[in-house]
Amino acid sequence: MTFSVWLGLALVCILGAVSPGPSLVVMMRHSLAGGRLHGIVAAWSHALGVGFYALLTLLGLAVILKESPTLFTAIAYAGAAYLAWLGIKSLRAKGGVAAKLEKGEKTTLWEAARDGAMISVLNPKLALFFLALFSQFVAIGTDTFSRAVIVITPFAIDGLWYTLVTLALSSPLMLEKLKQKAVLIDRLCGVVLIGLALRVVVTL
């Protein structure tokens, strides 16, 4: 794999990572509710899910997923249900994130890791994304080193992107501003997550 080919792969992965969606909402909630470490844990757990789908594509299993409508639909509905559950949790949160921080109530690292991983693993569109835009690079890299690069690149880019998002959201100045509107943020996060869940169901 040449450097120019890798740049093409990296660009595709960057475009996929920065696209706004439910992952951004989850990172924001954990960065606010638990702090910087929780946001970073959620970010790299999410990246593991992305790397998982990259590996599936490399092994050719994403093709099976695409060609099995029943399996795809089941995973999509599971993902929608998880998004809806997260949304309901946000809507029912009492006092918003600011109240949690003042009372010393924080989400656990396990919750951050779980939500970060599940929001990517339960997204079958990741498999289709890799299948459509990523498989061309799989065909180019047939040696072990190239295959490792193909899997590590989306994993690293996704993790680094959401780490940057977490660092921005958890900076003292930004955190103070967001804490003042914590209840509104919780409610908006809930509405967005439920809306995304409904969109998944409608587009199936």
UniProtKB/TrEMBL annotation:
This is LysE family transporter. One of its GO terms (cellular component) is plasma membrane. It comes from Grimontia sedimenti. It is a multi-pass membrane protein. Its main location: membrane. One of its GO terms (molecular function) is amino acid transmembrane transporter activity. PANTHER family: AMINO ACID EFFLUX PERMEASE RHTB FAMILY, ARGININE EXPORTER PROTEIN ARGO. Keywords: Cell membrane, Membrane, Transmembrane, Transmembrane helix.
